[in-house]
Write a structure and sequence with these properties.
Radius of gyration: 21 Å
Number of strands: 2
Structural class: mainly alpha
Low-confidence stretches: 22-38
Mean pLDDT: 90
Shape: elongated
Helix content: 55-70%
Order of helices and strands: HHHHHEEHHHHHHHH
Distance between the termini: 52 Å
Strand content: under 5%
Length: 256
């Protein structure tokens, strides 16, 4: 088959995920069946991720398909493999390009756990990773932050801000700003205020400052960050701190 066809077939499997198949037949036969259970779609896709490929597009399609599975279908070895791919640009015995490794970082944001926060922060800060991986890690941390809460999400916001202060690449910083906005927005959606209340770094105030008077390359993303948070807060916030932030955000945005 042509490479593009194989890639789209893999993505289609990722979209479908686990489907009813012969693994359920023994139960339907009141235990009389003898067929072995089928491996999950996630496991089958993971086997394709580990297989030797000559085309980088298929590597990317396989990793992306794996990232489309339910997080509870993902195993620890799968996550460890993705970590190694993102941090070391290695998949088994094969070397990965920066672009291929960046999809592993994105996948960790979609299907990872709190255990992947530290590796993604490392991917963002270390000199060993390329720009594509750093940008993907900045995006992934915002996605991953939606699956932790309380003090963990607040700590992630502080660590992410401090990591961004060491980053020179404008795109990485801007993607990180949007991830910070997602962390605050997730707090607002779940009626928590851990991130906005963190004293180590007042992330929401930094975003307000960036949107109002930040660097030329950052102001648009700062403005978008304010919009993401304000939308999550809604028109009738239940917490006074969100009400104040929303008013300030609208003022900054209207001021252009």
């Amino acid at each position: 088959l042509q490479v593009r066809t194989r890639c789209f077939a893999m993505l289609s499997l990722g979209l479908l995920g686990d489907q009813p198949d012969h693994a359920a037949l023994p139960d339907a036969l009141d235990g009389l069946g003898t067929m072995p259970p089928a491996s999950s779609t996630s496991q089958r896709i993971f086997e394709r991720v580990l297989a030797k490929h000559d085309n980088p597009e298929y590597v990317i399609a396989s990793i992306f398909a794996l990232s489309m599975q339910r997080p509870d279908a993902i195993t620890a070895p799968m996550l460890l493999t993705l970590e190694q791919a993102a941090l070391r640009a290695r998949l088994g015995n094969a070397n990965l390009s920066d672009l291929e490794a960046s999809y592993a970082a994105l996948a960790l944001g979609r299907i990872g756990t709190r255990a992947q926060i530290a590796p993604l922060l490392l991917a963002l800060k270390t000199k060993a990773t390329g720009l594509a991986v750093k940008r993907s890690a900045a995006i992934a941390l915002g996605r991953l932050g939606s699956r932790v809460d309380g003090a963990e999400r607040a700590a992630l916001a502080v660590d992410l801000w401090r990591a961004l202060e060491t980053v020179r690449d404008a795109s990485t910083r801007n993607f990180g700003l949007l991830s910070l906005a997602q962390l605050v927005a997730e707090d607002a959606r779940t009626d928590r205020a851990d991130v906005i209340g963190a004293k180590a770094v007042r992330v929401h105030e930094r975003l307000l400052d960036l949107a109002a008077d930040g660097r030329y390359s950052e102001r648009p993303y700062g403005a978008l960050a304010l919009g993401i948070i304000a939308r999550a807060i809604g028109t009738h916030p239940t917490r006074a701190e969100y009400d104040r932030f929303r008013a300030k955000a609208i003022e900054v945005l209207r001021g252009g």
